[in-house]
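To close the chapter, one final illustration. This time we ask the reader to focus less on the individual chains and more on the assembly as a whole: which components sit near each other, and how the overall shape emerges from the parts.
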Amino acid sequence: MADVVRIGLIGLGRIGKIHAENSARRVPGAWLEGIADIALQQEQLSWAEGLGVRLISRDPRDILKDPSIDAVLICSATHTHADLIIAAAAAGKHIFCEKPIDLSVPRVKAALAAVKQAGLILQIGFNRRFDHNFTRIRELTRAGDLGAVQLIKITSRDPAPPPPVYVASSGGLFMDMMIHDFDMARFQAGSEITQVYAAGAVLIDPEIGKAGDVDTAIVTLTFANGALGVIDNSRQAVYGYDQRVEVFGSKGVAVAENDLPNQVRVSTAAGVTEEKPLYFFLERYKEAYIAELASFVDAVVQHTPPKVSGEDGLENMYAALAAGKSLKEKRAVFIDEVRSE
Amino acid sequence: MADVVRIGLIGLGRIGKIHAENSARRVPGAWLEGIADIALQQEQLSWAEGLGVRLISRDPRDILKDPSIDAVLICSATHTHADLIIAAAAAGKHIFCEKPIDLSVPRVKAALAAVKQAGLILQIGFNRRFDHNFTRIRELTRAGDLGAVQLIKITSRDPAPPPPVYVASSGGLFMDMMIHDFDMARFQAGSEITQVYAAGAVLIDPEIGKAGDVDTAIVTLTFANGALGVIDNSRQAVYGYDQRVEVFGSKGVAVAENDLPNQVRVSTAAGVTEEKPLYFFLERYKEAYIAELASFVDAVVQHTPPKVSGEDGLENMYAALAAGKSLKEKRAVFIDEVRSE
Amino acid sequence: MADVVRIGLIGLGRIGKIHAENSARRVPGAWLEGIADIALQQEQLSWAEGLGVRLISRDPRDILKDPSIDAVLICSATHTHADLIIAAAAAGKHIFCEKPIDLSVPRVKAALAAVKQAGLILQIGFNRRFDHNFTRIRELTRAGDLGAVQLIKITSRDPAPPPPVYVASSGGLFMDMMIHDFDMARFQAGSEITQVYAAGAVLIDPEIGKAGDVDTAIVTLTFANGALGVIDNSRQAVYGYDQRVEVFGSKGVAVAENDLPNQVRVSTAAGVTEEKPLYFFLERYKEAYIAELASFVDAVVQHTPPKVSGEDGLENMYAALAAGKSLKEKRAVFIDEVRSE
Amino acid sequence: MADVVRIGLIGLGRIGKIHAENSARRVPGAWLEGIADIALQQEQLSWAEGLGVRLISRDPRDILKDPSIDAVLICSATHTHADLIIAAAAAGKHIFCEKPIDLSVPRVKAALAAVKQAGLILQIGFNRRFDHNFTRIRELTRAGDLGAVQLIKITSRDPAPPPPVYVASSGGLFMDMMIHDFDMARFQAGSEITQVYAAGAVLIDPEIGKAGDVDTAIVTLTFANGALGVIDNSRQAVYGYDQRVEVFGSKGVAVAENDLPNQVRVSTAAGVTEEKPLYFFLERYKEAYIAELASFVDAVVQHTPPKVSGEDGLENMYAALAAGKSLKEKRAVFIDEVRSE
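The assembled structure is written out below.
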């Protein structure tokens, strides 16, 4: 394979457009060869042409069967992920798939098995591992600068809740939102979660409660290496996207604060003010999306394991399932309980 | 009663000396009339004389029977607190008692009953309610500036662990250390804790584990008003005393960072450095100790309820007991379970 | 003219490469049509081809005579700027020129006259006006949020001094380095500098002194609107590129701190550390370079005045000349003194 | 002399009360023996009695002739300082005198000569040398952690201007307000000021201009050791007392930010807010006043030179005079010019 990875992208929604632009313009070694979206609109078509993409289609199979394409980026609706992974594996394409892989464990396992059998690279879109703040903390723990990790604290709050109808189909707070934080927790711990306890409440939107979900939660984690962790999630932080991580160890603590749009502090008679955090994931993780794609391209070119594997996707899912079970049963739940279900 | 409250102090250890100096010199309206310590050393005697104290004794009864003394500060060993409270109530003295009141619920209840019957003021030494950072957050929630409180997060880590022998007699992490944080949680929530889940580990000193305790813990709280909370404790933060509080509500979040000895940031080729937090409670809560005593003096003079009541002491104790039970039984424990035991 | 501005770039050095990449990939509405460099190396040629540039040449005239090119970016050596501006104006190309325009006032005036006569747009590369921090402050003063501007303070220090040989040819500290800060001062004040006093010293490299220059300076400014200002420059800040601005007015102050590579603070027994500032101008002003080019493209498309005009370049130069004169004569120098020389 | 320094205080105004309380209660080794104020009011008398002061008088001579008094604190009006110093020296009392010593150089010299001849200790009230932030920076430079000092920047702004009538009698901005900053500059530089250039303006209150003074100023300094410095002063910072110092050297920079009343940051939909600086000198330098008195007491007990000498007072005055001359003559003024006048 040449040093350029020819990419076909499936699903040109909000996140698909991000990956399309990054493949086309911002990631050295990536070349955006094709785009498919089953409901392609004229606006999307023009947009894709503006990027200079050769193959534009409403049929993902056009991507999968194109011999010049090395890798596919799956950015379509969640329920299509598993089938597309299996089809892409059959077509011999390396795969980058947005999270979650699927809401059903057996379907996830089937998809992972297909990729494994085909000997292809599969990377899952847990983009926060590529954030400048969080990778910095991970470097510190890898280098031993914080000593043995003892406590991991993750704050993750969205600026505004999704529509309740979305909540119903998304798999809920743990599977849709906190799954990013389970991934972050495992990444920072360098160890697997063994046990989960979830406290949750409906404090923001009663409709979310009616849909059977919570909108506020605190989840306590125990890791295989003995460390403890805690994640707090809220569907609505009125001051913006709150994304902080703290890792405490025997030699010290590292705290990642939010990114701000600028470093200006204003003092008036009314008080001292600085900027609110970057608004939401598109702003906050703009560079992380580029870095994750660059990492995928690198893994494909170098034939090395991806930084976020299909197994990571599965483990994160187990944590989400265990959290749901814990919330229902008001007790700590071992990951092994859900793993064996 | 005059505007000056004449104080007798019992127990001239580390914390007793703080209260002695504050009564003698820093709290307007307080007058330090007497000091008793059953094991008074020459050094302590000279020190007390230096403060200009009239009555210095090895017998606490000399304090209790002195008619010119309006109020006693009980700073002696924990196991003496309950008896001294009962004796002081019988002697008609208002009482400030260091925390915890006692390690036994019935003894605490007996002490509170004695005070109640005597119609006296009893304030418990949960000093952190008087800290400038934490009172600022409480003002914000009282004023409604954060909206409905949804999440409370308390970080509380000591710079160095106590000797394991102390751990055994202290009642353990939850009763000795986290009890301050339960109090802070209740203070900030403006609501009682209804349920507790504790995760704990021995990550710092195996001797603490042998003594039957943990040295690291994360405790999740549910409050009567629906809010959730989480406390993390460590017996050893090598960078110093880590005392932070975060209260998140429907209108925003308030975060209290650590106090530093100065505001100097130094940038060199090696990096950018600022000071570590103030080392431990004597440094960090220096002003809070003055403010809590001033508040007690004020309550005595004005005949108003103290800012931290005996009932607060009892509720904090229930939370600690519930946390211990949760840790043992690996499940969420309702406060009512321990209340009715 | 179409909405796409076809760009020819002259001078493919360090800053030329930045503008080339930005024109080719990052600025919507820009299209990099040609590159010329009189000493083009094979490496540069390959690099330019990688960007997909059609016209690559060793002769700038190939750019100027190409009818499909709308605008030129002049990134070659300073002594070539004025002639290239005049030639580009003659060729009917809009012009973006790196600072300084020239070291000779008459030559600058000749270049500006040529552009004016041709009715073309000329923007000078004072990129810091497009920095997210400094534009934020300017927005505040424009909106009146700081009231009447009274004091402007600019800190501008390089991480490492240039070679003394460069110093000799560059025009010196005031003309080469502080000229950016004069521009920033005028931008923030919204008013012209009327008077300058310069104190300077050789504290870093005696060779710079032998070359007749200073490496450390504090320059006080008086503005036409009555405000005062001060700039401090150092050729060597060992902790990195120090770029801060403070604007103080009757209603408050805005302070722009340095940008950091991440928001992680690390606390250990040794102290609390955060990142050093972004290393130098390529890192710090990466986004500002994109924004300045986008602004130029916008001015060309909209036929509106550029955000940084040739007259701005001339005024900045007067300030630099006045500073040099002040340093020599140890007195305050009016801008009008140098303007009329 | 015993370890206790018996103090007589002259002048019970705002600053006198601070020193009285500190001598009586907060500085170990100090004993407040007497207070004199020529216009003593009943309120002041009661207040002084509340401190337990033995000798309370309207006649400063009662203090000076009292044989049990070791040292006097001169806190009366500026025009009385020199005579009181001379009288105190004649009476054999050590002297702490508030700044400035006097507005006339010959009178200052006469006072210093009297003290010198008597072999007594004289400390001048430049309290900022005892501030926790500024002493921290000085420790760093003393230890060589910042290398050779190259640039010193001092920001010093008051929250509100004094009444214009005060301005007239105070000696003006340079002598009354910036004199503190000249002292800070000399303290941080560890070197004398050799040259001064002042730019000033009337931007806040035209009445101050009518009184012949400026209310806003930037003063550039050159030090004997080659370093440069700059001070900016404003009579009105609407956000509060702005007291920052920055020392830049060959090995790095130290920046002292303002002290805040608490460390709480509040994020809402409207923005992220923290506290304004401590309001004014009584709040900001509360601890510095205690430390300066403790240092004086220590100098008296140990017979060591005071941390701020009479000569410091004189040097600061020269700098203020030079600044005034510079402002008038629009040129840099050497300190030696005013020294020899």
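Chain C has a mean pLDDT of 96. The longest strand of chain C covers residues 149-157. With these observations in hand, you are ready for the problems at the end of the chapter.
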